[in-house]
Automatic annotation (TrEMBL):
Signal peptide: none annotated. PANTHER family: BIFUNCTIONAL UDP-N-ACETYLGLUCOSAMINE 2-EPIMERASE_N-ACETYLMANNOSAMINE KINASE, ROK (REPRESSOR, ORF, KINASE) FAMILY. It holds the Pfam family ROK. InterPro entries: ATPase_NBD, ROK. Its EC number is 2.7.1.2. GO terms for molecular function: glucokinase activity. Belongs to the ROK (NagC/XylR) family. Gene3D superfamilies: 3.30.420.40. Keywords: Kinase, Transferase. This is Glucokinase.
Length: 262
């Protein structure tokens, strides 16, 4: 897989140069645990990588400045600079898809903690709850991810569906869908309440596939979170603006910074 990535980067650089727009740096966003400063992928289960010095490999191949980022943090960076959070210094970017992760922007800067920060999908929202692939149980991801919502509906209704179909059935008043959706919203409110207490974000930007449900998700989530908070700052909750381009744009921003551009 690493060889394929190196070949793809080389092809893209050649295409850019042939088009009269030679690249000055390379940015790559990777899922998993990533040490951005070192340019090292600690673990990417989806790609089968462990302790891979990706920046060094790319630098050797391209002879250009290299920036390596985490895919969600890169997306959060893009939303904070170019998207829904561009006028905000403290925010959480929360993409909800097959899983749930978070990109923390604190005082205007992405916070990575060596690649381990932002795993909000593994906050425990239900004591002795559903087992999670992380080895724990009761994790947010097991209640509020798109996969969890679809699975919970299928288990109760006996019918395989997607999360988007569950959302459509919520809008149509399907009682099973409404119950599953409400549980997901409540789980998100529990996790965001904990995050708001510790980090006090001004803004939560919801992205990923589930953000496509729009106010069907955001309106009850705002209400549920507000009801849980007492003295804490209540963050605004909005939909991401950049969609699937967020990670790509974030990688470009990392490359731009790596090349010394402002």
């Amino acid at each position: 897989m690493a060889a394929r990535v190196l070949d793809l980067v080389t092809e893209l650089l050649d295409e850019a140069e042939a088009g009269g727009c030679a690249a000055g740096a390379v940015g790559v966003a990777v899922p998993g645990i990533v040490e951005e400063a070192a340019g090292r992928v600690v673990l990417s289960a989806n790609l089968g990588w462990r302790d891979l010095d990706l920046a060094a490999l790319l630098a050797e191949r391209t002879e250009l400045p290299i920036a390596i980022g985490h895919d969600v943090r890169a997306g959060g960076l893009a939303e904070s600079v170019l998207g829904a959070g561009r006028h905000c210094r403290d925010l959480l970017f929360l993409p909800i898809g097959t899983g749930i992760a978070g990109a923390m922007i604190l005082d205007g800067r992405p916070y990575a903690a060596g690649g381990y920060a932002g795993e909000i999908g593994h906050l425990r929202v239900e004591p002795d709850g559903r087992p999670c692939r992380c080895g724990g149980g009761g994790c947010l991801e097991r209640y509020a991810s798109a996969a969890a919502i679809a699975g919970a509906y299928a288990a109760r209704a006996g019918e395989p569906v997607t999360a988007a179909e569950v959302a459509a059935r919520v809008a149509a008043g399907d009682p099973v869908a409404v119950a599953v959706w409400g549980e997901a919203v409540e789980a998100l409110a529990v996790a965001l309440g904990a995050y708001a207490t510790v980090c006090a974000p001004e803004l939560v930007i919801v992205g990923g596939g589930l953000a496509g449900s729009g106010e069907l998700l955001l309106e009850p989530l705002r209400a549920a979170l507000s009801a849980r908070l007492t003295f804490q700052r209540v963050p605004r909750i909005v939909r991401a603006e950049l969609g699937d381009r967020a990670g790509l744009l974030g990688a470009a921003l990392l490359a731009r910074a790596g090349a010394g551009a402002p």
